[in-house]
Specification:
Elements (H helix, E strand, L loop, with lengths): L1 H6 L2 H26 L10 H22 L5 H7 L2 H5 L5 H7 L7 H17 L6 H32 L3 H15 L8 H10 L7 H8 L15 H21 L7
Helix pairs in contact: 2-3, 2-7, 3-7, 3-8, 3-9, 8-9, 8-11, 8-12
Amino acid sequence: MWIRSTLAYRVSFVLTVLGGLLVTGLDFVAILLMFSQVDVLGGYTLPEVAFLYGVSATSFGFADLAIGSAGRLGTRVRDGTLDTLLVRPAPVLAQVAADRFALRRVARIAQGVLVLGYACAALDVVWTPVRLLLVPVMMLCGGLIFSAVFVAGAAFQFVAQDAAEVQSAFTFGGQTLLQYPPTVFGRELVRGVTFVLPLAFVNWVPGSYVLGRPYPLGLPEWAVFAPPLVAAVCCAAAGVAWRAGLRTYRSTGS
């Protein structure tokens, strides 16, 4: 329904997508401005940073398109409109994801793909079959990891009820963090997003293999191929958190 209503006004949709493309593109413009003053950032060249940026933006774009509507769950919990979803013969999480589905979010995906295309063309690496295969695997697993964070944040809103900003800190904030090389951050922060909230497996860890660079924490070599396993564990943990949060829900009665 939301897709059909969006496409009913095609010119408006195209203008909205172009506007979104322009706004999200300002993030990469900021990186370009940095490189107008320096040759490397944390030891990484512009194509290498663009590669990290493109993978994280594309992965996050897929997750935001699929489950980004979960950020409004707190509002439904507070005003009691979540009750209408509970009585329908469909999974509540699927209904939350489809609620006010915003097709305009494809702009973030398009922008990430454009930057990633530039990076792949400009990188000075030998594109072996393993490296070529790892790039789409990174985007798929990254999308799943970000989706798990969205779902876990939505589950937390069953308890906190007004924690959309907390959720955004880990979703949008995490995506912004991954746009930059791990070498520009402190080791404690890198450890946190590697072993506690494993966002590093979106692009930092597998990207170290593609770019031919050592990971700051000295992980074993097999870790660069661990994103599918990490994504599966994150999705399972998010599913458990979602079910636990849903069981704690108490209607406001309104």
